[in-house]
Structures are given as structure tokens and as C-alpha cells.
Amino acid sequence: MKDLLVFAPEVANALATGAPVVALESTIITHGMPYPQNLEVARKVETTVREAGAVPATIAIIAGKIHIGLDDETLESLAATPGSEVMKLSRADLAACLALGRTGATTVAATMICAELAGIHVFATGGIGGVHRGAELSFDVSADLHELARTPVTVVAAGAKAILDLPKTLEVLETLGVPVIAVGQDQLPAFWSRESGLAAPLRMDDPAQIAASARMRAALGLDGGQLVVNPIPETDEIPRSVMIPVVEQALAEAAEQGIAAKSVTPFLLQRIFELTDGRSLDANIALVLNNARLAARIATAMA
Ligand code: PSU
Ligand code: MN
Questions:
Q1: Radius of gyration, alpha carbons of the chain
Q2: Stronger pLDDT, 265 or 10, i.e. the higher one
Q3: CA–CA dist 199, 132 (Å, integer)
Q4: Is 65 one of the catalytic residues?
Q5: What is residue 297's predicted lDDT score, i.e. its pLDDT?
Q6: How far apart are the C-alpha atoms of 166 and 157, rounded to whole Å?
Q7: Where does the chain bind Mn(2+) (predicted)?
């Protein structure tokens, strides 16, 4: 296992001294945002974590090794590689990518697995995967939900994207025993928008409460992590009324073109980017930075 993990010196040092560390995913870089904004954002997220007093650890698989923290050169080459040439890794294909010596970006699920192996307990991202609309026919339910049920990492996201079926996503999380904790409001946030029209199951406004809740789960021997849902800042949000028709159109086009499986989320994100004249990307960037700040505070409370 030691040979499989490659730690950035800064991360190794932080973990050895018990300093707060925040894991970051790489699929958002390769499949979630266009180049070169993706590179700019990846760097900005790391800076934001540092400014908030924690050490960032961006996770990716490079030539068959799990990298915990990427140097700038690696980050740049990953960001510049077209998504079609990088594996999008979840629980199902992580081991295969490593065994074949290949390079891949980690989704929420795969990043959780790698963070846990590295001893990192907090992870910041944009949005998690969830139950897709029409899942009753397509069976498209993100492996992120099952990972949250089994791997003890606290994941900070801005809710699940409105491209998903949010009520069904909440139902599945409840069935799987995953606490969904809203911060600063009672509603589940909906990624680009603060409101989803759905009540969040739990609310904790203080990072210390979130840290205490993770400790209590461990003390009880409960498997799995926590999903912290942090609303996008008011000044950056795109209201729900604006997003609903955009999402409907992107979904209709995906259905028309027969987009399926792993391609669904990247396709929808790209179409929504085009349909909002780039506004969705600005919102996406703002919410990721906002999540990085909160994750750093939670990691600090846990350290
Ligand atoms: N949300 C975003 N951008 C992304 C993703 C989610 O705003 O790039 C990625 C995450 O890595 C998440 C994955 O884990 O999409 C979910 O993909 P799927 O629905 O295929 O499980
Ligand atoms: Mn899927």
C-alpha cells in the first residue's frame, strides 16, 4: 500500500504533525470545467484552503499511483488533457486504473476512498453525484451515494445539482444512513441556487458541531461519512427560477442524443455552461471556493 500512495511533501508533513488537511477531487478539473478555467480554479481552491489554515491535497491517479497532493506541473498537465483522454474513476474502476498503470481523475467516490487510505477526514468539492432523473428506468444512481454510506470522510458540497432528482437523492441518502447536514439555512441547497424547495434533514451552523458529529459516528462504530451541504453565497447564486428551464433544456438534449452512463454529468454541465453564457461556471467556481473555506474550518475543528 505504501508503494501505491505518493504524498506531496506538504501533505505528508501536515499528516505527520496532525495539522488540518482538506482533500480535493480531480474529476471536477478534467470533466467538470473547461480548460483553462479548470486549472485556474484548481489553484485557487488550493490557495483558499491554505488561507483558511489547512493544507490542500488534490487527489488523482498518475501512471498507476495514487497522488495525495499534486505539484503544479502535474496539476497543469492534468487540466490541459481533454476529459475524453483521462479515465473518470469511481469505486468500480479505481483498482483497474492502478493495476494497468494508467492515469485517471477521481470522482467524489474515488476521492473518498483515497482520502481514507491517506488518513484525511475532510473533503471539499462542488456537487456530489446523485439519483438522476428517470432513474426508475435508467437505474442511474451515482456511486457517490454508496461511498458516503461506507467510507468515513466528511464531504462538503453545495448540495446536488438540479440536473438530478433531488427528492430521490435525499431518499436514497436516508436509506443508506448518510447524515445530510445543511449549514446556515434549513433548506437543501441546489448547487447553483441556494434554494431547492426541500428541507435538509439536519442543520449545523458551527464547524465544531460537524466535527463532533463525525467523532460520534466513529464512537458508535457507524460506517460511512457525512454530507455537508453548504449554500452558494447569495451574491454568486443563479436563482432557481432561472436554472429550471435551462436544466430542462439540457436534459431534453441529453435524452435526444442518447447520452448515457458516465457521460451524462459532463454533457449536462457543458450544455448548461453554454446555455447560461458561462454564468453557471462563475457560480460553480464561487461555490467550490466557499466549500473549500468551510472544509478547512471543519478540518481545523477535527484536528
Ligand atoms: N459535480 C460537479 N462537477 C463535477 C462532478 C460533480 O459540479 O465534475 C463530478 C464529481 O466528480 C462527481 C461525479 O463525483 O461528477 C459524479 O458522476 P456520476 O454522476 O457519473 O456518478
Ligand atoms: Mn451515473
A1: 18
A2: 10
A3: 19
A4: no
A5: 98
A6: 14
A7: 140
- What SS3 class is residue 131? strand
Q: Is 161 a catalytic residue?
A: yes
C-alpha to C-alpha distance for 119 and 303, rounded to whole angstroms: 12
Question: At which residue does the C-alpha cell 496532525 appear?
Answer: 18
Distance in angstroms (rounded) separating the CA atoms of residues 233 and 231: 6
Helices (DSSP H) in the chain: which residue ranges?
Answer: 9-17, 27-30, 37-51, 72-80, 94-99, 108-118, 135-138, 143-150, 166-175, 207-219, 240-256, 264-275, 279-302
Q: Sign (positive/negative) of CA torsion 177, 183, 187, 189?
A: negative
> What's the rounded mean pLDDT across residues 136-145?
94
Tell me which residue has cell 436534459.
Answer: 251
Running DSSP on this structure, what letter comes out for residue 18?
T
Is the distance from CB of 289 to CB of 48 less than 8 angstroms? yes
- What spacing in Å lies between the alpha carbon of 219 and ligand 1's midpoint? 30
Give the separation between CA 270 and CA 23, rounded to whole angstroms: 25
- Ligand 1 site: residues with CB under 6 angstroms? 25, 27-28, 31-32, 107-108, 126-127, 129, 142-144, 262, 265, 269, 284
Residue of 28, 43, 5, 274 lying closest to 161 (CA atoms): 28
Q: Give the burial string for 179-190 (b: 16+ CB within 10 Å, else e).
A: bbbbbeeebbbb
Q: Phi/psi at 214 (nearest 5 deg)?
A: -65, -45
Q: Quote the cell numbers at residue 255.
A: 435524452
144: annotated binding-site residue? yes
d(CA 238, CA 180): 23
How would residue 23 be classed by pLDDT, with cut points 50, 70 and 90?
very high
Written as nine digits, the cell of 206 is 458551527
Asked if 200 contacts 127 with a C-beta cutoff of 8 angstroms, the reply is no
Q: Is pTM beyond 0.70 here?
A: yes
User: Residue 68, SS3?
Assistant: strand
Contacts of residue 289, Cβ cutoff 8 Å, sequence gap at least 6: 44, 45, 48
